[in-house]
Amino acid sequence: MIQSSKDIDVAVFGATGYSGFELVKLLLNHPRVRLGHATSGSNPDANLNQLHPTTLDLPLCSPQSVPLNEIDLAFLCLPHGAGPGRGQEEAARLARAGVRVIDLGGDYRLREIDHYRRWYQTEHAHADLLGSFVYGLSEFHRTRIADATRVANPGCYPTCTALALYPLAEAGWLTEGSIVINAVSGLSGAGRGLKIPSLFVEANENVTPYHPGQVHRHVPEIMQTLRDMSGAEIPSVVFVPHLAPVNRGILATIHVPLSQGPSMSEIREHYAARYEKEPFVHLLAEGATASLKHTCGTNHTAISLHPCEGGLVVVASIDNLLKGAAGQAVQNMNLMFGLPETEGLPC
Predict the structure, then answer these.
(1) Closest CA to 245 of 216, 202, 211, 210
(2) CA pair distance 161, 163, nearest whole angstrom
(3) What is the set of active-site residues?
(4) Which fold has domain 157-320?
(5) Which of 2, 123, 180, 336 can pair with 255 through a Cys bridge, CB separation 3.0 to 4.6 Å?
(6) What's the whole-model pTM score?
């Protein structure tokens, strides 16, 4: 952790995607940050207000033109994979130049190279750096993040799921059988590129599951995080994400088998104790149910608990662009530079 009275000079690599644009807005309003450079690989000579409907008059530049010796931290909002302008290459270039990095992409979240090859269907050109990135789930790795120079920001679905299940994992209550995660995401979760399922006519008045079962690349990230939290093997995870006709937000409904487990009162007490001092995680009152409206537009997580025969249903919501991406990245930056964790983040 660095503690300094001076402003933090930052650059955003990939400022024109949804997460990058959200991050730019947060950083421009952060009282301790100076955003000196915002890059675009495809439109390096444009202004941000030419590419987004915004009044922000922010010139863009090429990634190669950023003077690395003038920045304290780089945020990467880039597509995963190898090649110029993609996550693997930029993260490696910046890390090896001694620049602190928070990578919002998926290239450095998984620690095992075989897992990366299998789930991302590509080679990793910088596998030697995999273990050097701290997994940036703020509530779980707070101390490690504070001392880190390289942070891999979690995916949006894994963030929501991990925070929903952290108390159960910590207590050793995820050992009986398959955890079934049904999750809904807003259209911004699919990115800003043109895709047929995201077209208005396809998505409006429709809800579509995609990559159901155990094929989505967030499955190994969820499994890795739950294993780390519990210190034990997790039997299996079934993950069914859905695309919903809303702009933003994630709502996860998770069934956990607990046939020989604790009582509901014990579970509620454990959740309450775990999250009592967390500024961005909230256990809702008994009888309430988490929804997208609890958290959209904020960096918060809402969790509700529901008994069922032989198990427990946990419902959790986050804003996929904030707690699931840009907001958590700023939270991690605050930890790395010794700032109040809530600094510059929407309530």
Answers:
(1) 202
(2) 6
(3) 156
(4) Dihydrodipicolinate Reductase; domain 2 (3.30.360)
(5) 180
(6) 0.94
